[in-house]
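Mods, move this if it's the wrong board.
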Amino acid sequence: MLETHLRKDRQTLKLGLIKVTHDLFPAETFETVCSIPNGVFCQLVGSALSEREVKKIELALHKWVAEKQPIQLLSDQDGYYHYKVNDLIIKTIHPTSENSALADQFRILPFFGGYVVDFSPNATNTTFSLPRRLSSTYGKSQLWLSNIKIELVSDVNNYIKAGRYQELINIAEALQEKEIADIADMVMRERRAVKVILIAGPSSSGKTTFSHRLSTQLRVNGLRPVPLALDDYFVNREFTPKDEKGNYDFDAVEALDLDLLDKHLEQLVNGEKIQAPLFDFQTGCRLQETRELELGNDGILVLEGIHALNPALISNITKSVFFRIYVSALFGLNIDYLNRIPTTDVRLIRRMVRDEKFRGFMPERTMSQWPSVRRGERKHIFKFQEECDVMFNSSLIYEMNALKPFAEHALNNLTSDSVHYETKQRLLRLLSFFEPIDHSQIPFNSILREFIGGNIFPPSEHDYNLFLHSQRMHKNANS
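Not the wrong board. Structure tokens:
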């Protein structure tokens, strides 16, 4: 399944939205705010829409699609595709179709003073569940950006051009530290019931650094964080499920020994000691040695991994003992009001930079694996995100500026004959809107350090184990 921003039929519909909104509300400014599962949230800048007005937009857009209006590409310059839609010139960073009739099916629903464009299959016949917690987290980030008078990528660029980038870094990092401290305080307030913290999130969301920083704040509050690695509960290699290509699927929940994990969690919660397993990724087997763990009076278990919010992990334990955190990189800046920065691309760039620096993987491999990563996220992670007690946005307003030189260096390894050359060009187009920033001034406990290097925290066991496994596979292939 193509990402929303890569589908021409959905980009075509976006042009129609801009066109009909301009016709209906010529004095207003249309804004694409963010993507949500199977949809996009849009609004008018500084102006709330009524349900009646949202219905007018939907009817006008259906009419525009039915009329098979031509869409003319005028030029491709300055990072934008310039299109002519009837008498309106629209700039977009993604290509579209040449006729309105090729737009994707849709419905439009009023939401938070704006509206959601729902692209769900058979959208007119399905019930749409609005992701309240995700939308609230986006809204919180947008409010913070408004408070510090930053709205678009150009605002961040202006800080950098003026030599004020350190101020920007300090503000962004202070916000995250405050939010992490607030979460630690929330845990402390529920300390009588809470025994286990579950931390989940998609690839390259910064879960590992977040876990370390949260653990530091928990220690400040007088608690003793006890880390438990989900990776140590992998089943032996011969029992690991495989994906549709016949490769081991370490992201499948069935790759874990759920019975043992459930038993150990229950024992720890009840104050008992456990002999936690240790898994050797090089042999693909559980070691004979174990690690003794217990929580004690001041201990709190910290369990981080992509499946941490999956109910299968905690099926036999009362839910009140768990505090559930979802971490994701919800990049909040737009290039302009019409063109948002896809959060998926931000995570892909994070992963690409980290893969090259720490795993020895070139962008060719990262991009080849990305569709599988995304399928796993849709299957195992996103459907549980609304079950969390709190959602943490790990994105930093300056991160694309900091990642730019690393990402461009990695992308330059892709040649024109690569199957991922089009992706290279698309990401370079996206990066072209950002002024580079001096990364030496980024704090060494920053989430961004997990990707660019210099992190004071060790890598997650999952990342390290994947590295060991890749090295072993590479060695076997060459022997």
